[in-house]
Amino acid sequence: MDLNIGIVGFGARSTLVNEAHRPGRGSRVTAVCDLSERSRAEARAALPEASVTDSLDELLASGIDAVMVLTPDHQHAPVAIAALEAGVPVFCEKPLAVTVEDADAILETARRTGTRLYVGHNMRHMSVVLLMRRLILEGRIGEVKAVWCRHFVGNGGDYYFKDWHAERAKTTGLLLQKGAHDLDVIHWLAGAYTTEVQAMGSLSVYGDIDDRRDRSGERMRDWFSLDNWPPTAQTGLNPVIDVEDISMVNMRLGNGVLASYQQCHFTPDYWRNYTVIGTEGRIENFGDVSGSEVGLWNRRHHGAAPADETFIVPESPEDVGHDGADALLVAEFLRFVRDGGVTSTSPVAAREAVAVGIRATDSLRGEAGTLEVPQLEGDLVAYFEAGQVEASAGVPS
Questions:
Q1: Contact 84, 107 (CB under 8 A)
Q2: What is the overall mean pLDDT for the chain?
Q3: Which of 29, 82, 260, 387 is a Cys-bridge partner for 342, taking CB atoms 3.0 to 4.6 Å apart?
Q4: GFO/IDH/MocA-like oxidoreductase domain: from which residue to which, for each copy (predicted)?
Q5: Is the dihedral of CA 205, 211, 217, 218 positive or negative?
Q6: Are strands 66-69 and 3-8 parallel, antiparallel or unpaired?
């Protein structure tokens, strides 16, 4: 029998609906909630058999088996908490929340109610990340000591500076909103969470552009074009821009690993480059999609040298959304709703990415000092790491 899935927020991430709506194959979207008239109209056209409403209470009472929260970031917490309180399993798009307090409240509500919580960190399903993690776990570079990530956000002007993403009140900052993915991957590859951060950043380009307009009712696809170049020639930016377009973060992890993350929103290319250095070598990716290369160096060389081994990022089982990761992400969520158990994604890890992004933002907007990252209570961590069951309840099915 198909699971009945509700969708809250039929905007940019509504592409995930294609993976959740598989009538006769395990799940179907039966209800959609959105405050936007345009979004509701698009939902009715895409899902003619689903009920469409602007009332969250109505959606939660519609008999759904799970809900996917795909709203703008600042709306994640109230929607997710309401669903968890109603006993409806939740898929919450990343970042989990825009404050540490809200992220912790979501986790605490999930535990108190016993309602299943899943967070949409799809990069844990990306082939390039899985390949690099496998090489690390196989011991191919020894013990990890450093992780560096450079994120070239070539579409930054169109993706993040023409709508709500550009406002602190709705994102905290792009170091959290965009960086949550990479911060989570850094933790996953390094095998620990960040305890201290130090950051610098600035609004270097888009703050100087005075061509602004209110794009309420528009969608990113309405204005996106690779011809919107160079960044200084962008037009129609959001009336409010108070987030950084370049950020650099240094991190100390709980196991002693040192990490760094750099994010720039006015590069010509759009991809992520990870370098992981261990006691016996290093790995680095060149490209982050199927067919890209991951190099491994494990011998000494004079100067720059070709990799000692090269690995090709394999094709994903599904050639859709984020190099197939979106399909795998939703499939894991649906399995989790049905059966429970441990998942590749982690609500605790999602919270830690939020905490690091926020504290790093505090650092770069302050005096660039080193700040501690607030830690979760141990029993809350244990609950989620056990597959969202209390320690006395045994192993989940």
A1: no
A2: 95
A3: 387
A4: 130-284
A5: negative
A6: parallel
